[in-house]
User: Which sequence fits this backbone?
């Protein structure tokens, strides 16, 4: 009676999983790890979502690391520019 459970995680589950992982990891991120999360972090920031709560390690790294912070700001600028392009002409 093999009822097979779907093996695919929804975006929400993945988010919860990542959130859990982020909270369990006690150590700080490296720059590479920070940069890997940075686009998500920037997107959440732009959307007004609590990026610092969802990814506290990234926030912590950005507070300490000037290189990544500059990268983050550049990313924010790029995302804003993209948003402006996507916005329908009123
Ligand atoms: Zn860094």
Assistant:
């Amino acid at each position: 009676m093999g009822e097979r459970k779907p093996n695919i995680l929804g975006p929400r589950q993945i988010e919860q999983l990542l959130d859990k992982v982020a909270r369990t990891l006690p150590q700080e991120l490296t720059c590479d790890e920070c940069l890997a999360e940075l686009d998500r972090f920037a997107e959440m920031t732009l959307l007004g979502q609590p990026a610092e709560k969802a990814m506290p390690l990234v926030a912590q790294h950005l507070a300490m690391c000037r290189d990544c912070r500059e990268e983050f700001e550049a990313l924010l600028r790029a995302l804003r520019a993209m948003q402006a392009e996507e916005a329908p002409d009123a």
